[in-house]
Structure formats: C-alpha cells, structure tokens
Amino acid sequence: MALKKSTNLLFLILGGILCGFSQEVLDVEEAIKIALENNYQIKTARNDLKIDSLGSTAGQAGMLPQVSASVADDRSTQNITQVRSNGDEIVMDNAENKSLTYGVALEWTVFDGLRMFANREQLKENEKLGAAELKQTILDKVGEVMTTYYDLVQQQQQLSALDSTLTISEQRVELAQNRFTIGKASKLEVLNAQVDLNTDRTLMQRQMETYTNTKILLNEQLARDIKIDFKVIPEIFVDQNLNLDELEVKVAEENPILEAEKINKRISELQLKQTKAARYPTVYVVSGYNVRNTENSVGFTTSSESQGFSYGFGARLNLFDGFNQNRNEKMGKVALENAQISIAQQEQALASLVNTTYQTYLTNISLMELEATNEEIARENLEITVEKYRIGIIPTIEFRTAQLNYINASVRLSNAKYQAKVSEILLKQLAGNLEI
User: How confident is the model over 389-404, as a mean pLDDT?
Assistant: First the structure.
C-alpha cells in the first residue's frame, strides 16, 4: 500500500483507534446517572437531608406535651426500738418497710415567649439548608464526573493522533531502509527514522498510561469497580450560546451556595427571636395519675393505699441573670449582621467568578476555532510532506517537523475543546442549572 494512501486512511479513523476493543460505550448521561446512584458524598448528603427532615417536627420544637410513666419500688429492713407516749416500748429486729409508687405524668409548656414557634421555623430552615447542601454536593460531583469524562475524550483523541503518526513513523523506517538498501539513502537516515519511531512509541505509552489512570479516576468518582473497562464518545460538543446576563440572573436565583447563605441569615434571625423569648414568662400545665402502696411492720399505720389525679400549672420568669440576657441579644444581633455580610461577600465572589469564567469561556471558544483551522492546515501540510518524502525531494528534518506540527496541532485542538467544555460546565454549575 502506498504511503500516502495509508496516511489518508489513518486520518479518516481519527478518534476511532479504540473501537476495536470489546468495551461498553459510556456516554456522559449514563456516567451522571451512575454517579447520582452510587457516589458516596451524594449518598451522605442525602442522608443528612433525611436527618434534617426527620428533625423538622412540632415535637422537636417543644410544642407538644411530654408524657412519662414511672414506677418506684422501695424496700428497707431495720432493727427498731420505739418508746411510745404511754410508756410502752416496742423492739423489733428486721422490721420490713415497703413502698410501691407508679403512675403517669404530663407536662406541657403552653407559652414560652414564642420560642417554640421560632424553633419550629428554624427546624424548617435547617431542612431547606440540607436541601441546598445536597444540591451543591450533586452539582460538585456531577461537575467532577463531567470534567473527568471529557478529559478522557480529549485523551482518546490524542491517542488517535499519536497512533496515526506512529504508523507513519513505522512506514518511514521501512521506506528509509528500502532507500538505504538500494543506495539512495545513508545509514544516518535510517537511524534518525528509527529514533523518531522510538520517540513516538514512548509518547504513545505515556499517553496510554494517562488515559488508563484517568479511567480509573472516573470509575472511582462513579463509585464502581475501578477495573471496569469502557470507552467514551469520540467528540466534545461545546454549548457556544451561553449569555452572561442570563447567567448572572441564574446565579442570583439558583446558586445553592448563595441560597445556603440566605438560609443561614434566616436562621440567625430565628435564633435571635429565641434569645429574646427569655424576657417573657414560661407557663406550663401539669397533670398526672399516681398509685401508692405502703406497708410498715411497726407504727400506728401498718399499710396504706392512695390513688388519684393531680393537676395544676406553673410559671417561671427570669428577673435577673447577671445581664446575660442583654449580652446574648447583642451577640445575636452581631451574628445576624455577620450573616448579612456573608451574603454580600458571596454575591461579590460569585459575580467575580462568573465574569472571569465567562471571559475564559469566550477565549476558549475562539481558540477552539483557531486550533481547528491550524489542525486542518497541519494535516494538509503533512499529507504533502509525506508524498514529497516518498519521492525523496525533502530532507528528513522537514518530514519530522511536519509530523510534529500535526501532532501538536491535534493535541492543541482537543485541549482547546476540552478547556471550552470545562468553562461551560463551571458556568452552568455556578448558575445551578447543570444538566442532570
């Protein structure tokens, strides 16, 4: 087969060198699905949200009565000597006394300065905070999976380019050997071709090592067997229609980190309400039903039994606590101020990150278009150079330069696409609308 024909065929299979292996084709949607089901951090965040949901109840807030049951069985054995008012003396060894008491009791705080209602609202806000944290965890982990996935895509493209140039280098060695055999080339040309071939083989092995290790990393992020083999899609498609104004609106409305800061501010407000509630009295009602049996070996009453209801109410009011109430309220106000500052700080940080990332996104798209043109030029230049080398009208160094130019252009193109995709992923992640 002629060298040029072989080269053209190799260019046609760019991106497909791994297609011959019996591996599953893992697309990014399936990778995300597996991560959502298996990832350990996502599972932990879901369980944390369950804990918050289970704790968001009226009982946890102290709004419901407390009912308890109790039983006490007391016994004693004593040596007793008694002298009664009439002069009689009673002496008894091992006199046994018994007392059995059991019953149920109810205590219900009916007013505590509205602390219980503020506590109930705080529990609800804690649940919302858990939901925001779960959303952020999902966005983080899905972003990581997508970034690693598209890193594999670009590495697969680079492997394809290296495989193509490796084949060309092998044929170059064969052609140089044939030229040397018939006396049209020196031994130096053969040796140079062999050195360049070995260099390409080294690059191929290093790239394959990186590719394999990145596969292991993706399997780890998917929380599955790290030895599972697979291949990824051959191309990276970048959404080039992102709008900065729309992204900024989305960040302000849906970013879970900013949402969490706003929830924390609301929690600080509720905590201040709970602190202020201590200025008011606490009113509670009590009720119960008790049964009591006693037995005494000596005394005027040797046994007794009583049973019945009890009920009443009580109130407590703090009159002086060393000015702690004032201090606690002041600290609560400062905490609330800090929460508001955190919101402003987070808004500014997100605005800065979105704007800088968007500029990087635009630059990467521009570079992607530029490198696509460069790669096409380098491909055409290599085809011409291969043909000229085949007929022996250019030196070896020009051939190798064209070969390396094509490799570098292919690597830069795949890297530009990858970097543009990473910028897209980060922008959508910040806006809280990453496709999941």
Answer: 85
